[in-house]
Amino acid sequence: xxxxxxxxxxxxxxxxxxxxxxxxxxxxxxxxxxxxxxxxxxxxxxxxxxxxxxxxxxxxxxxxxxxxxxxxxxxxxxxxxxxxxxxxxxxxxxxxxxxxxxxxxxxxxxxxxxxxxxxxxxxxxxxxxxxxxxxxxxxxxxxxxxxxxxxxxxxxxxxxxxxxxxxxxxxxxxxxxxxxxxxxxxxxxxxxxxxxxxxxxxxxxxxxxxxxxxxxxxxxxxxxxxxxxxxxxxxxxxxxxxxxxxxxxxxxxxxxxxxxxxxxxxxxxxxxxxxxxxxxxxxxxxxxxx
Length: 290
Hints:
It is a single chain. The protein is an alpha+beta fold. Among the domains are: 102-196, no CATH class; 200-290, Beta-Lactamase. The protein has seven helices and eight strands. It has helices spanning 10-27, 32-52, 133-150, 160-174, 182-195, 201-205, 238-251, and strands spanning 112-118, 121-126, 209-216, 219-224, 227-231, 262-266, 270-275, 284-289. An eight-stranded mixed beta sheet has the order 1-2-5-4-3-8-7-6. It is rod-shaped and about 150 Å long.
C-alpha cells in the first residue's frame, strides 16, 4: 500500500518523493541474485570486523583431546581386502642370457657345449667368438703365413708371440684397429681350421657320430648311433665347401683338382671320399670314422 503524505511546500514534496521511491523498492519481491549479493555483503562485513579485532586465544578452539581406544581383537570381517594384481607377461623382463665361455683364456678348447635332437634333426649349439668380415681378412693373411711356417715348425700354432706379431702386422696393413685380446680370437680360429676341421669340428669330436655326409653346402647329415639324421651345421656358400675339400686333401698330402675330381683314401682315423666339381656346383664329401 502506497503511503500518501501532505506536502505544504516544495522542499517537503521532494523529500516525500524520495521516501516513496525507497518504499516502492522495499515492496518489490527479492530476486535470487539480490539474495546472493546480500549474503556476500554480510559475510564480507563480518570478515572485516573479525580482521580488525586484536588477537586473543579465545578466538581459536582448544586442542581436541582423544580418548585411548580399547585394545579389542579385530574381527576377520573388519580386515582390509587386498586385490591381487597380475603383471602382464610383456612387462616381466626376460632372464639374463648364460655367460659366454672365456675364449681368451682357452683358445684351443672345443666350445660345442650343447646338443639337442628334434625329430630327425641334430642341433649343435656352439659358443665361440663371433667373427666379422674384417676379422676374416686378418685371418686369411695370417693363415697363409702359418701354413708356410708349419712345414718347418709343426708347432707354430702354439707360439702365441709369433701369431700375435703376425696378427698385428696384418691389422696394420689392413688399417684395422685391434685390442690386446684380439690375437686369442684369431688363434682360436687358426687352430680350428688348420689343426681341426672347421665347421664340421663338432661332428668330428662327437663320438656318437659314425659318418659325415655332405652332398650340398647347405646340407650336412650324419650317421648318429647307426641312425641317419640331418644336422643344423652347414657351409655358407659353395665356395666355402670347395675350399674345405681342397684343404682336407692338402692336409693329408693328397692331390685333387677339376681334372682329377674324385679322391678316396684312408687314414688312421678316417675313410675319406671327396668329389671336387666347383663349376658344376656338385662337390661332395663323405667321412667315415674307423
